Amino acid sequence: MAHAVRFYETGGPDVLTWEKATVGDPGPGEVRIRHSAVGLNFADTYFRSGLYPVRLPDGIGVEAAGVVEAVGEGVTQVAEGDRVTYTGSPLGAYSTERVMPASHLIKLPDGIGCETAAAMTMRGLTSAYLLRRIHPLKAGDTVLLHAAAGGVGLIVSQWAKLLGIRVIGTVSSEEKAELARAHGCEHVIHYRREGVAERVRELTDGAGVPVVFDSVGKDTFAGSLASLKRRGLLVCFGTASGPVPPINAMQLAVNGSLFVTRPALADYIADPAERDALAGELFGHVASGRIKIEINQRYSLENAAQAHRDLEAGRTTGSSVFTL
């Protein structure tokens, strides 16, 4: 019998329920996939809390990896027995198996295991578009990266170092600082005891950085803006502390003609060719060992509520997965 995590109302982690599920045969353009591992992402908490509205009841989770068990009419990009990964809608990855559109699947190369894929598909593709698509960064540039010891942070730090880009990372503890340094951060700022913008100015001889990657949101927004050099770009790609406050356009002008963007991964992988190109680059780095994927927390799907509590409390580092 298949099982899935669902929620019938928005709220805290306790709204998540573990229940039996009926999984039918795939229709045209669909596949049935049996999951081997499921990714835990901060975005999952946005759907659960209601920050990202969905029609209820619904499943939860946007990332998993596993094996194709059946294909529907018209499916040609994957076949039964293929190992695949995916990230994105529709919700429902927190499940042992499911039926879903085949167009969302990415075939896994032999060198990438399903658990590794579930830990990195969303984080890795996010890192890929941040570094390879959103701004023309070049060797010698310096960037500020918030949550440097998180899942995206550890991948971005390693990838940036491969590209010759210096990373100044922010962390909340010495344990996380050591982890960030070990994965390529050249400088680490303890944001609970140091002024982020002031320290960034010190490290850049007063100039500031051309790009800030900010997945925290409300609590870091002002400091992120203050860390930018003239005509710098603030990339707000997450809201772990709450939504980004309203932006005053004149504030951007008087602080150096700054730019702000709020990108979504979906818009950088909507084109299958671009998605496959980014995935290919990511998989190549991981399979070769140039980028290591740190899975530091493992949970059972039955314990999804506890996984969400740990994630929201900042008790996790690197990537987290549900094992099946």
From TrEMBL:
Recorded superkingdom: Bacteria
One Pfam match: ADH_N
Domain Enoyl reductase (ER) residue range list: 11-322
Coiled-coil zones: none
UniProt keywords, alphabetically: NADP, Oxidoreductase
UniProt key word NADP: yes
Key word Oxidoreductase present: yes
PANTHER family reported in the protein's UniProt record: QUINONE OXIDOREDUCTASE PIG3-RELATED, QUINONE OXIDOREDUCTASE-RELATED
Full protein name: Quinone oxidoreductase
Protein source organism: Streptomyces nojiriensis
